[in-house]
Batch of 3 targets.
Target 1
Amino acid sequence: MDLRTAKQQSNWQRKGYLHKVFTPAEQSLILASATPDTLVWLFWSMKEAAYKIYSKEMDIRNFAPTSLQCTIFDQDQETSSGQVIVCGRTYFTRSSLHQTFIHTICADSLVLLHQIKVSIQGDTHPADLFTPAICKSHHGAYLAQVYLNPGSLRSTN
Amino acid sequence: MTKTEILGRLQPIVAIYTQDQDALQTLNEDTDFIKDLKINSANLVDVVLDVEEEFGIEIDNAAMEKMLTVKAAMEIIEIKLQEDDRK
């Protein structure tokens, strides 16, 4: 997710916004954070990544961001790992935090999560690398592509 | 409020966030906010909040869950307005 695009297009500080998107626990963490912008888009990125897998697995389409419940296990300045629970299903996430973008990969097991390879390009859309990407996400100036062994569940955002 | 009135008040709201102006020209009940108008999911929240303000209604999470098309939005607005009338 391109943070410059997100900043231009969305104002999460708008009245009622946090309440519609984040669980009470997530809202508390955002409001107490020294870097609330980053946390808002990190949670958002985690939710979107998990939703991609969940909606495919369940063959549903909905807009229920508060039903995707994020927990962060560990975070430093560059990476964050966590999980998203939705309707009793758990998805593990790993996010890269950069000055201008956040990218989250997600899988239904930690083993799978560690097998994911990521390629991120800004501004231009390069041809695919050695194999076709199994999941792509495009936002603002960035295109993220994810590679993995066939037959596994995974997503990117 | 008639369906035409609802659609007439909904149209300028979605126009703010749409990324596909051509699809906006042919806006109808079957128009999908994300697939057709290319509204990003972060802005779909703004559509919901703007609809709440415009129509003076409250859209709970259960209703918001379905709000992916013009038709679903119009149905939710109609139901919420009727509920408010009965209060």
Note: The interface with chain A takes residues 40-46, 48-49, 52, 61, 64-68 of chain B (CB under 8 Å).
Target 2
Amino acid sequence: MRELKILAVVVFFTLVTYWGVEPFAHSQMHKHVESENFEYKDLPEVEKGDIAKGKDLVMSNCTACHSITAENMPAPMDPVTSGASYGVNPPDLSNMGSVLDPKYLAAFIADPAKASNVAHKFTPESGRTHPMPAYNWMPKEDIASIVSYLQSIAKPIDELTAKEVFVESCGRCHAARYDGKVLGQKWTQIGQKPRFKYEKDSLAFDIKLLDYEDSLKKYMGKLPPDLSIIIRARGEHFLKTFIEDPQTQLPGTAMPRVGLSEEGFEKVMQHLEDIGDPSKPARDALGINFLIYMAIFTLFAVLWKKSVWRKLH
Amino acid sequence: MAHFSDAKPFSEKWLDERLAVKTLKRVLSQEYWIPKDINFLWAMGMILAVTFGMLLISGIFLLMYYKPDVNLAFDSVNYTIMQEVGYGWLFRHIHGVAASVVFLIIYIHMFTGIYYGSYKKGRELIWISGMLLFVTFSAEAFSGYMLPWGQMSYWAGMVITNLFSLGSLELNGLVEWIRGDYVPGDAFLSRFFMLHVLLMPLIIIGVIVLHFGTLRIPHVNNQEGAEIDFDAEAEKYLSGNTKEAKIIRFQWDFLAKDFMVMAFFLFFFFYLVFYHFEFAMDPVNFDPADGLKTPPHIYPEWYFLWSYEILRPFSKNVGLMAFGFAQVIFLLLPFLDRSPNAKPAHKRGLFKVWFWVLLVDMIILSVMGKVPPEGIFTTIGFVAALTFIGLWIALPFITMAEKKV
Amino acid sequence: MSNTNRRDFLGMSFAAVAAVGGVAALAGMKKAWDPLPSVKAAGTTVVDTSAAETNVMYTEKWRGKPVFILKKSKDMVAKASNNEKARDVIVNGEHFLVCIGLCTHLGCIPAYRADTENFLCACHGAEYDQSAINTKAPAPLPMKIPPFKVDGAKIILGEAGDAYNKMKEAGVLGSTPLDPKA
């Protein structure tokens, strides 16, 4: 009995210390941000539009900068030159219709800086404008048609791999060293780095990448961080609220609100888990077996101890 | 010259003639008498040995793949070991969680010693060697934390080495010498790698042997602090009266209970390794080290927080003196406690209050050491730091006034 | 069961359970020594033979070892023995020698002599013919042919294709002695 009391005291003080040093202290360091589950409450609804009209509009307004591989339309420039011209390589539009929320897509086309919450970067005083022009001169129905067209050519989100969604949503600004079969053949902002036989070719690729990153640094203010292990460095809740609206976690940041749909976000999270914490499934599975073994081990330890101490009590 | 018979090679007699194995067995297990009146807290020593063993073995496997170079260290841990090496993630999790949990057990073990007076009357060297183990384990933990070369590694390294400028003495040359560079860099990482992997483990093993050695003759303490006539009790035990004898054998009586407590511990430990490890593997250290960007919150590992907080509320020089005081004062416990009683705290009047106030005060210091130093937290931390110093100054007076029990 | 027997039995059982855990731990530790995925991924090398000149020895690297690539001339093929021809790797109609460039005596790298169309190992004087079959002691065996697969003008080292498997069945890879004149 006394031993149980002593155990209770030890457990109590351990838990108090744990609470104070972990949950309590962290709540003091980071205020809690509530997620809105990608509802984009601040954005208006989008009507259904005319797909054919949308296609015409896209072909005449967008393909000067954007590639659409789903329609065999290549990019007008290579990524490095695009980066030098616009600051960042404009995304391919094939899957924007399923990866992004339609309300966001419409709002973004109308006013990119406003919809992505980076208007604070492109004030008149700054002398800078968003690389993509605003289309708010277009009638609302036309923008709706563009959205409908983009939705029609997009692969359903279920058919996209987690990596594909990551590449479309994040990969033009963020590199991921760990995203590749081996270290070295990594995801870079200009594409997956292939295996080069000759050092010279590998260095040539690296120089192109550095040029792109220079343009990106100028455009963003600093180089967006490598996302290889961000899942463990920030955790799911932070990433969810951050991606939803970066300004809620890092006010004044240059990172745009991405406008992912909820399913798009789930895929991005899946990819971040795959590259940053791939041992999680094995860990969860082995853990159960380990604990079952430890329970059996403890049982035998207790039985043996009791039998040894029978003659001592 | 010793006498050597025709005993069969490697038989017990043959080994006894050459290595005195029979005497060793008698002294270290069969007739190593332990008091019977003990509780599960007496198993903390064994748990520490097992946890140290796990650190050593998991460390060996990490050592196979870790690269002590500022450009390679982070990825060698977070990619090669965590993602490529077979069970690398498991070795890393075991190592990180064990490094944190070992200090929980050290503190429980330490406070058990304080509570039951196991640092008095012949046991002073056990206490001192134990506190030396606390210091060496702290150095081992700090040097180990540098190795992943994450943001916390770098900035903890920066802050703690800056302490050596000794405030107004401004010994910047000394700080640079410790680092081998102006800032924590490659030289800093390599030397702490050497300390963590070779020098500190050797010293720790030596002090552990000393710790065991200083324990043997005074014998293990018991729950009531009772004086035991070990020879008389041994006779009772050996004649078969094991139920009434006040002592037990180390092997297998004491060890059986040790193993049982250890089993419960390991269950809890592995639960943490697999499912609840963030307290031991802080997210901030999963950002690669960046000398040009300080994280918004820097803090040491939880077991250093009380000590860190004693430094914080005071001005630079006073803080350093308080910090130095805190590091050494525990070593002086056997000599500051002036009472004649080697008894559990609940039998020692005011000392019982002293004990619980000290424990609660150190917990408060730990929590304050972690939260941002603002508003009411600074006040609480200041009061707690003063309380800590006050407690130790009061100890000789409290214990001098203690009546003999 | 008497107390002592029960105690001993439980002690033994406990030890057995602990041993099971110990063995599992050892198995995990063994896996930590296994070659890493990145090492296994680097296990193939692709050689492009389109620019290869005749009777010029090229050295490629495969799994850390040198591999000799030698395009044989029509004359060399004409005067080759059956064993020598059996070891030829045919790429787009051309005959190549593809072998691990290590002397089978003690592992030095032999030098190719274009004028005499054979190999000489500087370490102890061993010699090999145009198909790397040993012709002079102390070389005990022909230089070994690595797993290969022909893909158009490319040779993929590290993958066993049909031609390699045929050589394996014919026993000409170099693990057994061969008569250079047969």
Note: Chain B touches chain C through twelve residues (CB under 8 Å).
Target 3
Amino acid sequence: MWLISLRDLQWRRRRFVIAVIATGLVFGISLLMAGTEFTLYEDGRRIVGSFGADAWVVDEGTSGPFTTASPIPASTARRVALEPGVEAAEPVVISRSTVEREAPQDVNIIGYRPGSFVAIPASSGRGPQEPGEAIADVALGVDVGATISVGGHDLRVVGLAEQVTWYFGTPTVFVLLPDAQAITFRGQPLAMGVATLGVPSALPDGLRALDNSQVVRDLERPLKSSTETIALLNFLLWIVATGIVGSMVYLSALERSRDFAVFKATGATNRSLLAGLLLQAAVLAAASAVVAVVVAWLLVPSFPFTVQIPAALYLRLAAIVTAVGVLASLAGLRQAVKVQPALAFGGQ
Amino acid sequence: MHLRPTRDHPARATAHPAEDAATDPAGGPDLVISDLVIAYSSGGYEVRPIDGLDLHVESGQLVLLLGASGCGKTTLLSALASILSPTAGSIRLGDVEVTGLRGRELVDYRRHKVGVVFQSFNLVPSLTASENVAVPLRVAGVAGRQARSRAEELLRRVDLTDRLHHRPGDLSGGQAQRVAIARALAHDPGLVLADEPTAHLDYIQVDGVLRLLRQLAAPGRIVIVATHDERLLPLADRVVELTPRAPEASRPPHQLTLDPGQVLFSQGDPGDLVYVVDDGTVDIVRRRSDGGEEQLARLGPGSYFGELAPLFGLRRSASARASVRSTVTAYSLADFRAVQAHVDSTSADPA
């Protein structure tokens, strides 16, 4: 029956190609959206991990250093460093500002003390060693030696860093703590939190400790509605893909009613007809998946931020394609099962 | 009512009782049909295209099922192919009781015992001639190479060696029909059924197909052809007319007296006479598929009924039954026309 099914696809190749392209586009967009969702979360995990901290200390009323509006005195780090379990404690400023260009560009600001364990390694150039120096994200599109104005403060780019974007690819500028305080707090000696090496077993009153996963979840919280929307749209796209493949298989089954009747009259079972339809749906879905991968590869560079599509997403696509194929073949199965072999005796 | 072959080829006529042994000494299975009834519902009414058919066909015979459209030819073929379950009666092919087949046995019968040449060929358009012939083999699980080899052998046998890889759309009607015949022979079945095999062919193509069908009817195989094409008559060993032929109505008009409830004729009977009610009333009733009956009309003196069956060679589509003691006059179709013409001319006379 597999040969008959493949021959039928060959016979209806124009419709098959149209369905493959349409479904491939749908799967491709779905893959890109899944990649976007993955990138949003992955950026957060990577930026939190890049600090190299074991724990974070923040004001008790706040949910995390990346989203807080309640800074604490930077000097808190000295008290935290004295707590049991803490090997080192560094105040950090994490905020958002803009780079003044023809059109202001949003940037993330991270401020830290030079020589501390949170020093971000530059992929080229060096790290800031004195006020007025900065590491810029390559996504900002500036070279080492350039001067950028961030929140009204001129900074000289002394190094570049890669893959340090978050919040939909917003680039990050790393500066020394005083510069970050000047940009964010008009020079007040405040910090968003304290990153620690070692996990504090006790803390001064008014403070709370978070582990990295809690900080990542806090960082992801503002993204939740966006990622849920993406997930919903993705689900809808899978339904559309199922609809396209299902329509193709159903129409094919509808047009092949007399063929099915002949097969049944010659002793074919419903199971063998199902296998044939399943094969058609699987071939259609698999070909669509290949088109989807090509579409995704072609469209990734046109995105305003780097969209990552890891192997796991391709595997998920394969699973979805399989499910779509099975569901789509069910549409044709009903048609095939209800065909009576007596139909083969009818004239045309 | 029992239908029996009405025309048998004189040289081959047989009259075996239905319960005789089912295997011919030549080695092939005989086909024995006993008291076969096939009824189905159409528009809420019961239709019985086959009603009490007895038939015994010996291996090696070619039988024509002859009759007009709707007389039950294809219905009978469907039952012989075990595609349609009869309402009552028995079909035996050799030792196989076809009407009792279920599940795996039914599938095996369809795969190995019977081959069908469908009307309009019914070839799969996406497959080549060779692949079409291989379909029953592949369905039965025969390996690809073996199925291809067998298909090519069969196509050589029907003289289509140069059309192995042509699709049905690239074949003439006669070639397509020969592919369909080759497909029916895939498993070398003991029973080959052909439904209107000449319906879509010109006379040149018909010639080749007829020769082929005749050759197939050899010891070990029975060929049954359903057709309304009387050109096939010389080909047949036996002819079974499924359109009921009522005895020629040669009697002059005669009067019949019916007691209350007496049936004049029944639904499904052959019809030869037209009736005019002289006295009393006659009910025209039709059987419903739920077992009940529906009264279509109650006819009084001066009304006539039953003219369609003799006029078009149909079975009676309803029964006629006296509701009270009644008298009717029965006319042949010719006499009835004459009477009607007289009535019309009389009523047209201004005097």
Note: The mean pLDDT of chain A is 88.
